[in-house]
Design a protein that fits this description.
Helix 10 links the parallel strand 10 (270-275) and strand 11 (301-304). The protein is globular. The model is unreliable at 176-186 and 493-498 (pLDDT under 50). The strands form 3 sheets. An 8-stranded mixed beta sheet has the order 3-4-2-1-5-6-7-8, with helices on both faces. The chain has a 6-stranded parallel beta sheet with strand order 11-10-9-12-13-14, sandwiched between helices. It is 34% helix and 16% strand. It is an alpha/beta fold. Helix 1 crosses helix 15, helix 8 packs across helix 11 (310-319) and helix 9 (243-261) packs across helix 13 (415-427).
């Protein structure tokens, strides 16, 4: 029997609002892992979001498949595909139909504004949990109403967790008045906790370079070409992922090698593999970038938009020598973590969740922590890092914004710095690269990092159970003394909304 197993009839029923768990987006992938990995502790109903979902209006019971993957026989996982990210009516219907005990939502809070507007109604009956993600500083105080509408925020990165604390301030506590206090706890529970993304180590793991799946994938991608160095960029072709900068950096690296060596034989055996769409309205036309800006390396760049199985993706990571992510905003960076658990070295921009995977050390040799005085390492305060990564510190930190998100930093790498990191890995002997990559795997699976699906699922389930056991419903009405509020306003000269 699985650890923590609860009989189906005694489990809490959780409504999960996120990308459809069957869609291969980062959010969809993690949602799938969380529901499968906790299917022995909770019953799940998912509103499976997608833009123009082709299966909207249908219902899918995934329980039988989940049983096989989680090694139980009584899971309950039901998906309702939906166009967009839901609305109040469908959530009310699902709550009533499935007797929901709690809601968990995941991804950018702007998708869930309608949910936050319902919080006073919903939290009379059930708590709202948020697997929280935010890409960068400054602390988004414009998100304060969203965070305050939740009973638990589980930050996917150290920076996301710290950002929630900074925004909530004194409001970072669960109200335990008249509610049972957990054994050994005398003070209110904080609303926030750090639960890093975790990878399914049954699907992503090291393979020998001679493994048949690795050999077959290499031939599928490059035919009979003699290739001995592969750099993988596995991200969507959208602006913040900086795919064009990856291509330009690759060109600079190639030109520097050719200029120094005077020959191109070895350089022509390298490849840049881009697993993405060549054209995306949210990004650019990558083929035009390659042919017009970087024609001298066009024969070394391979783009594929194929939909790979997890087994095939594992082979791709294992045939790669380095995985690169230099996104200018990144809440986590799933491809870098998948690389780590396969024992593949990485190049990361020092921003958002990507910096977690670098394991920067403080003066005492500990993995760095963030607080109100030190909320990101993109300013290069600490430089000692894990040997599995070549971090690239942003050369510029620009303040961007829009009406819904008035300010957020955009951490941009210099392509020359990226090229230097690429070349460092290229010049590192293959056996040394592998040793360093395996050090990364060892750390990712450790009790310090906890970058595994098992750790992620257990930590989330424990956090949710703690809140469910101690949660107090909101009262139907809140009474205010208007005269007292007016007097307070007069005394403090601050505005008040009545």
């Amino acid at each position: 029997m699985k650890k923590g197993y609860i009989e189906k009839s005694k489990r809490k029923n959780i409504l999960f609002l996120a990308d459809d768990c069957r869609i291969p987006s980062g959010i969809g992938t993690m949602t799938r892992e969380l529901m499968i990995g906790n299917s022995h502790r909770f019953n799940f109903v998912q509103l499976g979001a997608a833009i123009n979902h082709p299966e909207a209006g249908q219902v899918f019971d995934l329980s039988e498949d989940v049983n096989k993957q989680n090694e139980i026989d009584d899971s309950s996982v039901i998906v309702y595909p939906f166009n967009g990210y839901g609305n109040p009516d469908v959530v009310r219907q699902l709550i009533e139909k499935h007797d929901i005990d709690a809601i968990i939502h995941f991804t950018d809070p702007r998708y869930w504004q309608w949910l936050y507007r319902m919080s006073a109604e919903l939290r009379q009956r059930l708590p709202i949990f948020y697997y929280h993600i935010w890409d960068d500083l400054p602390a988004p105080h414009y998100n304060q109403p969203y965070y305050a509408s939740c009973d638990l925020l589980m930050g996917i990165s150290k920076q996301s967790d710290n950002i929630a604390k900074l925004v909530l301030g004194d409001g970072n506590y669960i109200d335990l008045d008249n509610a049972p206090t957990p054994k050994g706890i005398s003070e209110p529970l904080p609303k926030t906790t750090f639960i890093p993304h975790g990878i399914n180590t049954k699907m992503f793991y090291p393979l020998d370079v001679e493994d048949s799946s690795v050999v077959a994938m290499k031939k599928r991608m490059f035919g009979d070409d003699d290739v001995d160095f592969i750099m993988l960029h596995n991200n969507r072709n959208i602006r913040r992922k900086m795919t064009s900068d990856v291509i330009l950096s690759f060109k600079f690296m190639y030109n520097d090698i050719v200029a120094e060596d005077g020959v191109t034989d070895r350089a022509d055996k390298m490849r840049l593999l881009l697993h993405t769409n060549s054209i995306d309205d949210n990004g650019t036309n990558l083929k035009a970038v390659i042919s017009n800006v970087c024609p001298e390396v066009s024969h070394l760049i391979h783009i594929t938009d194929a939909k790979f199985s997890l087994e095939e993706l594992n082979a791709i990571y294992n045939m790669s020598d380095v995985v690169i992510n230099i996104a200018s905003n990144e809440g986590w960076g799933l491809s870098s973590t998948e690389a780590l658990v396969t024992g593949t070295p990485i190049i990361n921009n020092v921003t958002g969740g990507l910096q977690d995977q670098c394991r920067f050390e403080d003066e005492d040799g500990n993995w760095i922590k963030f607080d109100k005085n030190f909320a990101s390492n993109h300013g290069k305060r600490y430089t000692k890092h894990g040997e599995w990564v070549k971090p690239v510190f942003p050369a510029s930190v620009n303040l961007q914004g829009s009406p819904p998100t008035p300010y957020i930093f955009d951490d941009r790498c210099n392509t020359r710095d990226v090229a230097a990191a690429m070349r460092d890995w290229y010049n590192t002997p293959g056996d040394v690269r592998k040793q360093r990559g395996m050090k990364g795997r060892e750390w990712a699976l450790s009790e310090e990092a906890k970058f595994t699906a098992e750790h992620m699922c257990q930590s989330m389930a424990d956090a949710m159970d703690s809140v469910l056991a101690n949660w107090k419903p909101l009262p139907r009405f809140t009474t205010y003394n208007v005269q007292q509020e007016l007097q307070n306003n007069k005394n403090t000269h601050t505005g008040i909304s009545i």
